[in-house]
Amino acid sequence: MMDTGDLGTLLETLCPMFLLVNEDGRILRVGPTLQKLRPDQPMVGKDFLEIFELVRPRAVTTLSALMTSTGAKLHLKLHDTPRTALKGLIAPLPQGKGAVINLSFGISILDAVRDYALTSADFSGTDLAIELLYLVEAKSAAMEASRSLNLRLQGAMLAAEEQAFTDMLTGLKNRRAMDMVLGHLISANLPFALMHLDLDFFKSVNDQYGHAAGDHVLQQAARIMVQETRNDDTVARIGGDEFVIIFKGLIDESVLSSIAARMIDRLQKPIVFEKIYCRISASIGTALSTQFSPPKSAEILNAADLALYEAKRKGRSRHCLYSALAGHRQGDAASG
Q: Which residues cross the membrane (predicted)?
């Protein structure tokens, strides 16, 4: 008959999570993987129930009683932390010489691999745990690849959306973005002011110094408009040298006139391009959403246009309010 030493050597190869116990429940030999769970606490020589808590079968409280339950499925936990859950089977040895208890992690295998840094070398070559680990690794790799792809796709979508609403030369919003902002403000019944700005003499810069100079002037003009407005405001380039600024929640005409005056003052200063002094100015017209009931995008844009052309008619490089223009027309109608 095979002695316990030879049996232990065989079990280490076939069942690296085994326990060989004597008839008193004293551990005679322990599999290398099982001992790896408590590397600083040798299990050999200790009582089985001193290390393991028997969760099921509940009616059994001693190992001798357990040995009579051949084939019974064991549910165990380690007494100290981490309290890893284990499953097992007990096989009594002939002539009551003890028993072999073979353990496994069951569904706790992933936690065990993480907690104890286990690898495939810690399991028997026929253990399905190895296949499970490979599947988990493959799934993790696939999920990471999928997550990375999704992040790239989301980034590409955001970039495409941003590009669809951005004027690529100046970095400002474009007409499509302006229409969207106007629609949102009107549907939400939020008050706002709309300023239509046109660069005076810009065509002369393009004709005299070329498109590179013209592009530079547009970029510098856009920078000035952004600097003179708030983060919540929308600055959009809607044409060659035409811009619209939407002031969310701002309908104080004196404040708007001050903003327009600052922009006009800064835009009439020469813009240097390759030692060339490019001179432009700005004409601005402003209308308020509260001047229309109910407000409509086309009407507000048209009102700002009328005020802009009134500013140009009066000599350019100035700001005109639609309210002043409308009052003047009403006065003319009354006098007629």
A: none
Whole-number pLDDT of residue 214: 95
113-151 b/e with 16+ CB inside 10 Å = b? Answer: beebebeeebbbeebebbebbeeeeeeeeeeeeeeeeee
Specify which of 115-119, 127-131, 161-165, 276-280 reaches the highest per-range mean pLDDT: 276-280
Closest CA relative to residue 32, chosen from 22, 24, 42 = 42
Of the candidates 111, 122, 241, 252, the residue annotated as catalytic is 241
* pLDDT beyond 70 at 323: yes
Q: Does the pLDDT value for residue 196 go beyond 50?
A: yes
The CATH homologous superfamily for domain 4-125 is: Haem NO binding associated domain (3.30.450.260)
Residue 237: what pLDDT? Answer: 96
* pLDDT confidence tier of residue 10, bands split at 50, 70 and 90: low
pLDDT of residue 96: 73
Question: How far apart are the C-alpha atoms of 238 and 324, rounded to whole Å?
Answer: 25
* Residues 317 and 282: beta-carbon distance below 8 Å: yes
How many CA atoms lie within 13 Å of 102's alpha carbon, on the beta-carbon side? Answer: 18
The number of residues in the chain equals: 336
CA distance 24 to 135: 41
Distance, CA of 192 to CA of 251 (rounded, Å): 6
Is 241 annotated as catalytic? yes
pTM above 0.90, yes or no: no
Q: How many CB atoms lie within 10 A of CB 37?
A: 21
The hierarchical CATH code for the domain 175-335 is 3.30.70.270
What are all long-range contacts of 162-168, with beta carbons under 8 Å and residues at least 24 apart? Answer: 167/236, 167/237
Between the CA atoms of 217, 221, 223 and 225, what dihedral angle is there, to the nearest 10 degrees? -170
